[in-house]
Design goal:
The complex is a heterodimer of chains A (about 110) and B (about 110).
Chain A lengths: L2 E5 L2 E5 L4 E8 L3 E9 L6 E6 L5 E4 L2 E5 L3 E6 L8 E9 L7 E2 L3 E6 L1
Parallel strand pairs in A: 2-11
Antiparallel strand pairs in A: 1-3, 3-8, 4-5, 4-9, 6-7, 7-8, 9-10, 9-11
Chain B lengths: L4 E3 L2 E4 L5 E6 L6 E7 L5 E8 L2 E5 L7 E4 L6 E5 L8 E8 L8 E2 L3 E5 L1
Parallel strand pairs in B: 2-11
Antiparallel strand pairs in B: 1-3, 3-8, 4-5, 4-9, 5-6, 7-8, 9-10, 9-11
The chains are: A mainly beta (about 110), B mainly beta (about 110).
């Protein structure tokens, strides 16, 4: 069964304290892996697309990386406005465009 | 900045009633989706729609569910006879390209079935 697991479930950081979120996947054929940010009561907001092992994408304080079994979202010197739930999702070959989401990591950054 | 808009933001209904959730996707997007998120659980795919047809649907999307694009701008999700377990946040999303994981989500419609 195709599965996406994120860890930790929740992460509390002090402002400026860098860390990483993990997304591990067990799927039949990965077409792409995607990171989204979700603020409370809002819809997911697209962050990154990763297609192949070794690929990296960056945006401000965030950097996403991909290996053959997992992806990391590195947060460098986070600020309180980075507080949100970060969702990982995968797309699988021969399953159309649907995304399979992980349960998310709830990040809280304290000033 | 273009955005996906959804109405209503919150709907309360009695079990067995029909509900229609509405969405206005981004105007130049051609691919439309419904996802749902039960409180405290993962975001789950329901259905994708292109060229006035369902492209793909999940096991959740049974005969009680239907989607429609009644005009050039709206995209609707109908639940014919709501059940308690249909209570969730329903997200509409759209994309410019097919097979892309870059979806633009609306803010969601919270459905509460009593």
């Amino acid at each position: 069964e195709d599965q996406v697991t994120q860890s930790p479930e929740a992460l509390r950081l002090q402002e400026g304290e860098s860390s990483s979120l993990n997304c591990s996947y067990t799927v039949s054929g990965l077409r792409g892996l995607f990171w989204y940010r979700q603020d409370p009561g809002k819809g997911p907001e697209f962050l990154f697309t990763l297609y192949s092992a070794g690929e990296e994408k960056e945006k401000e304080r965030l950097k996403a990386t991909l290996t053959k079994k997992e992806s990391f979202l590195h947060i460098t010197a986070p600020k309180p406005e980075d507080s949100a739930t970060y969702l990982c999702a995968v797309q699988i070959y021969n399953q159309g465009g649907k995304l399979i989401f992980g349960q998310g990591t709830e990040l809280s950054v304290k000033p | 900045e273009p955005e996906v808009t959804q109405t209503p933001s919150h709907q309360v209904t009695q079990m067995g009633q029909e509900v229609i959730l509405r969405c206005v996707p981004i105007s130049n997007h051609l691919y439309f989706y419904w996802y749902r998120q039960i409180l405290g659980q993962k975001v789950e795919f329901l259905v994708s729609f292109y060229n006035n047809e369902i492209s793909e649907k999940s096991e959740i999307f049974d005969d009680q569910f239907s989607v429609e694009r009644p005009d050039g701008s709206n995209f609707t999700l109908k639940i014919r006879s709501t059940k308690l377990e249909d209570s969730a946040m329903y997200f509409c999303a759209s994309s410019e390209l097919t097979l892309t994981g870059e979806l633009f989500f609306g803010e969601g419609s919270r459905l509460t079935v009593l």
